[in-house]
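Phosphoenolpyruvate synthase regulatory protein
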Amino acid sequence: MKCTICNGESHKFFQIPLADQIRNLFENHGLADLIDKYNADRSNLDLSNSYADLLDGSEFKRAHVDGQYNLDLMGHTDGISVSVSSNVSLWPLEWVIAQLPPTLRLNYVLVNGVWLDESKPYMNTMMKPFTRELEDLRENGVQWTRTLEHKVRTQLT
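Predicted structure tokens:
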């Protein structure tokens, strides 16, 4: 199969939609409750002269509207060797949600894609479909249902 972005044939590239993962976390894993509890706990802190989390930064506060579940995703990718006897490496693209408490962020890692190849991915090529997906999520959000329907928007941090 030929890659539609770079026209290469050797690499294996898999994309796992973020919207489905985010919807699942809200509907089945109580993400809204975790975020609400963290916000409530933080509202009792006096942070006038300090920062306890990246959520305390002035730019973060400026970019967010209270009363909505706006998610900031912090992304990471790095290659790992598949085995000692192989030249093939695996490059997962992972995201964590900034609105979760720091102690829980790594319990809710979103794996958005995986590059599998003998060579390192071209980052501009690898990131194109994810950038498009993040733009769509920012514009359209994710619809999820619990008892009431809600909308979530994401942005890249």
